[in-house]
Each structure stands twice: as C-alpha cells, then as structure tokens.
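Submission checklist for the structure archive. All mandatory fields must be present; incomplete records are returned to the submitter.

[x] Identifier: Protein kinase domain-containing protein
[x] Organism: Datura stramonium
[x] Residue count: 148
[x] Sequence attached
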Amino acid sequence: MSPEYAVDGIFSVKSDVFSFGVLVLEIVSGKRNRGFVHQDHSHSLLGHAWKLYKDNRSLELIDEYLADSCDISQVLRSTQVGLLCVQKRPDDRPSMFSVVQMLANESLLPKAKEPGFFIERNIFDEAKSGLQKASSKNEVTISLLDPR
C-alpha cells in the first residue's frame, strides 16, 4: 500500500506503481515485505533494499535460489526499477509505461530516492504489544457488518 494512500487515503495510478515495486523487490529477494526481519537492523524489506542499494551491495538482496540461474545484470536492473517504483513521493515514481520501457531496454536508469515507509521499526515493542501477531494462521480476516 502506497504511503499517500495509507496516510491520507489518496489513491492514484502511482499507488499501483508503488505496489508493483514492492512485488518486484519481493520476487528478487524471495522475501515478503510484511514481516521482513533482518539481524542487523529493523527496516522493512524496502528499507533493507534501499540500504543495500545506497551501499552498492544490491547483489546481497538476491534470493539464493535465484542467484545461480539468473542474469545478474537483469536482476540488479529489476531491483533498481523496483526501488524507483517505491519512492516516497508519487511524483518521483515512474509511470507503468516507463517501468515497462526500463525493464525492456538497456538504457541508463535514474538514481532511486528514499522509499516510502523507510523507518526503523522496534520489533521487540511490536511483539510485546501484539501488533505483529496475526489474527489467523492464513492471514485472512472476516468482518461482519452489524447495522444500527
């Protein structure tokens, strides 16, 4: 969910771009953004990918099962495109048409900016308060409407 939708309830075509970027980073890493945990920090998957990108260590993001059978340059390109899609400001994100062009061509990509939701979480406090505890094993909820 894009930051502008989560915070202000504003939805646009750039919200879909944000979601696509999250999906790309999840595919490359083999990890889900929701519930992502790293031993060295408390960032989400987006924050982790951003830190690696800034430090020119994006190769460390690649899923070990993907690493042996992939074109590394394409995966690194996909990672950068994914980061371009999850930038904090909607105006900084590319259109989906541009995303397709970036993935299909070998042209030079712009530098990514900080992603939305790039904050340090305190996982231990969340665990104590029960915020990370799923309400059901399959992560599906049922809401019953009770009219007045």
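[x] Structure attached
Curator remark: Confidence is low (pLDDT under 50) at residues 121-136. Residues 42 and 122 are 7 Å apart (CA to CA).
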